[in-house]
Amino acid sequence: MKRMKRRDFLKKAIKVFFSIIAAAVLSVFIYIYPSKIKERRLQFVYIMDEDDLPRKGIRKVEFQYKADDKEVANRVFLAAAGGDLTAFSSVCTHLGCLVNWDNNKKEFICPCHAGKYDMNGNVIAGPPPKPLTRLPLKIEDGKVYVGIKI
Ligand code: FES
From the CB of 132, is ligand 1 less than 6 Å away? Predict the structure, then answer.
């Protein structure tokens, strides 16, 4: 019979120990935040009437919706240029702070770590690892809806 070396035994014991700790932490997280684990689905939320859409430039749109019986506030930016309309999430792709639009500099600016994006949502400065997220838009019966994961 082959004997297990002391070093191999310690490695296995450490792996088992950390697996048990990870399972315990995950169980506590699921118990405390069950809604965070729930799979979020794309849903379209009304944001404005079609007549109010911007024709040029960037407009911040604030809106509310219900999720898990709670009223949730959100905001997106609509960018209109050359007849095209794009919706950007206001959530910075670095650590999730909400960006603002600086109309003088024509940049989205994140107040947390000075991340900057151009009007197409591309990163131009700071730590954000990727562009602002583009959100789907749909217009039905004169009403504008943005697609967000709820
Ligand atoms: S959270 Fe926006 S730059 Fe860090």
Answer: no
Interval between CA 105 and ligand 1 midpoint (Å): 18
Please give the structure tokens belonging to residue 37: 């684990």
What fold does the segment set 42-149 form as a domain? Rieske Iron-sulfur Protein (2.102.10)
Which tens digit of pLDDT belongs to each residue from 100-147?
A: 999 999 999 999 999 999 999 999 999 999 999 999 999 999 999 999
User: E strands of 50-136, at which residues?
Assistant: 57-67, 70-81, 84-89, 100-102, 107-109, 116-117, 123-125, 134-135
pTM for this structure? 0.74
Ligand 1 contact, 126 CB (< 6 A): yes
Q: If you average pLDDT over every residue of the chain, what do you get?
A: 90
